[in-house]
Amino acid sequence: MMSAGSFLPLFLSLMDLPMLVVALEKVERSSGTLIGSSIATIQKSAAPEMLLALMDEAYTGSAVEEPSGNSGSDDSGPLDLTDPMFLDLLKDENDGIAAKHWISPTISSTLQAAFNSPQSDRLKQSLEMAPRFLTLYFATALRDVNDSLLCALIPVVMSRYAAMFPDKVFSFKVRERLSDFILAAFQRSPNIIAVLKKPITDRLGEAHDNLAKTELALHLCWAIGEHGAGGVGHKDVARELFENLELLLYENLATSRLGLSQEPGSDSMGASSRKSSQARLLCFVVTAIAKLATCHSELLPRARVSLGRSFPNLRQEGLATGL
Ligand SMILES: *[C@@H]1O[C@H](CO)[C@@H](O)[C@H](O)[C@H]1NC(C)=O
């Protein structure tokens, strides 16, 4: 049983469970362990006071006092807990981390530090648990939640596809669950693709930012083609998504021809995986264009032109995806 009001925030708190562990361990490190301590010790510790103040702020809106001039403080004192990211996370662990903090220098340095230091047992357990919770959460969402709530959830899910705790196994598992969910939601209600046209095109526009975003774009392309951009009734949406796919096609061809893999500082391993993911994306884009034109026949002439231009050899041989 989940109310609509707690359903959306729950996603972020499950995603950010490992971050919460990192934040709480930071509190603990600056105050000494609280587990097994006597009440008297806990009462003397600054940590519960800190957490109470944060909860108070969350419920009453009264501001937690931030000691001034603490920016860039070292890792030892309790001061760095007043960092905005930790404040937001700790004052209500049900909210996860606000999107804006994922691009803050604090979070990148925190994640870097967490990434480079040995993981505590608690962190390891949270990295195991969070993907399982997400599986349950998404199963519940697909079974019990109506389309309007799914339409609210999917953009949040997409926004976190490339922003999560940077543990290799964890992020692999989580991404798998996120994309499975998005695809299953589109399968259940193809109409959602039309409703979410804007956030979907935004994500397609970021396809070349990094490998995770390329992967998300690839899934979205597949879904757009498979479900005809929401169905035969959505001609305008189909045309707009078609144009975005064309753009992706031309961009992809341009970058692969220019050989952008020779950026300074990119190792050959990174360059080759980027190349192969771009090639995969190209396949999905071409397939989506062909499928979209099959579902919406008014797009056929245009699909012939754009695919023919991109792959002149294929056209000569009459193999251009059967169009
Ligand atoms: C969808 O579910 C939410 C939460 O249960 C509810 O508030 C909303 O009115 C429902 N929307 C529709 C269109 O049924």
From TrEMBL:
<dbReference type="InterPro" id="IPR056856">
    <property type="entry name" value="TPR_AP5Z1_C"/>
</dbReference>
<keyword id="KW-0732">Signal</keyword>
<protein>
    <recommendedName>
        <fullName>AP-5 complex subunit zeta-1 C-terminal TPR domain-containing protein</fullName>
    </recommendedName>
</protein>
<dbReference type="Pfam" id="PF25154">
    <property type="entry name" value="TPR_AP5Z1_C"/>
</dbReference>
<feature type="signal peptide">
    <location>
        <begin position="1"/>
        <end position="23"/>
    </location>
</feature>
<feature type="domain" description="AP-5 complex subunit zeta-1 C-terminal TPR">
    <location>
        <begin position="116"/>
        <end position="308"/>
    </location>
</feature>
